[in-house]
What we know:
The structure is a single chain. The chain has one domain (about 5-225): Phenylalanyl-tRNA Synthetase, Chain B, domain 3, CATH 3.50.40. Helix content is about 30%, strand content about 25%. The protein contains 5 helices and 12 strands.
Amino acid sequence: MSPSRSIRFETGPSGTSITVVAITELKLGKSSADFEKYEQEMFEEIRLRNDLEDLSSDSLLLSYRAMHWTYGIDPTKKRGSSEAVLRRVLQGENLWRISDLVDIVNLSSAYHKIPIGLIDEAKINGQLTLRQAKKGELFHRIGGDTIKCRGREIVLADDSGIVCYGYAIHDSDRTKVTKESTTVLMLHYGASAATKEIISDATDFTSHLIKRWVDCEVSEPIRYVSPN
């Protein structure tokens, strides 16, 4: 089994990639006490390996920041999702309790410093395309306000509009995963410093945790790369 949706690139500098894994037959639940214990152990490892003051010079995070700057997004004001969860862990805070699947994705994203998105496959309309936003285009993010695009931002969109704003800064409320979701696409977003090997390790790690703690089936990953 492989993901049924491909990624088309209309923009994206050299090194831009999106690796897609299909999660099917999903029965979304709450994280178990066993996972929460494991998560706390991983938090300790993350804090041993990283320092909050050093994040501004971290090569992986810098590659995502550089991409955001290129498309007119200030990453000090709108942080990439992986940096946001990593900072939260390094500040001694726990991650949010959403669902077993989302909790695993947030933990893996903080550990690997790789942005990971989730999209309900049934809510996608047509082709997924990495492109620049249209001027005045509206984006409704999960749990937040509506963003009116200036026309420079990098976004992942389907035929109905934006599903991810700013290369994994915000996911769309329209395509979010809920307890009714049964088929979900998991996207690992790669940038110049996030090599094929780094993304592969992160994808394998995340998939392993999902197979361990989530009631679902997990496909083999497919990697799509910008032609630039």
